[in-house]
Prior knowledge:
This protein has helices at 42-49, 56-69, 78-86, and strands at residues 7-10, 14-17, 20-23, 34-35. It is of the alpha+beta class. A four-stranded antiparallel beta sheet has the order 1-2-3-4.
Amino acid sequence: MALHRDIFWVGRQWAVTGAGIQAVDQRLRGVLDIEITRLWDDDLVQSRRAKPGVNAVDFDQALTLARERFPQAPVADPFVAQLEALGVIAAPIVSPVVPAMKLHAEGRLARFLPQWRVRR
């Protein structure tokens, strides 16, 4: 898997990106990558660190920077957190800005509505 477009830090072997921690070597095809939602899973982190050929110093620095950038959110139920991370449960987006204009065309004929155009 290619590196995410948002790159926050690049080390010799690891990079902190918008997707989490990713291996710089793209020949691995994302096998060792750690997603943002799993940064705090110590079992997964230890299993990645124990892989042969992993630069432990670089990995630890990437893990520290990634955990600072993506702090662990306090969650009461881990199952709900996983569903929110996967996008199954969408958190309601509350916008403090009230839309200035509302268009209502229900029950009216389109030919009698005022027309508008964008000036170039």
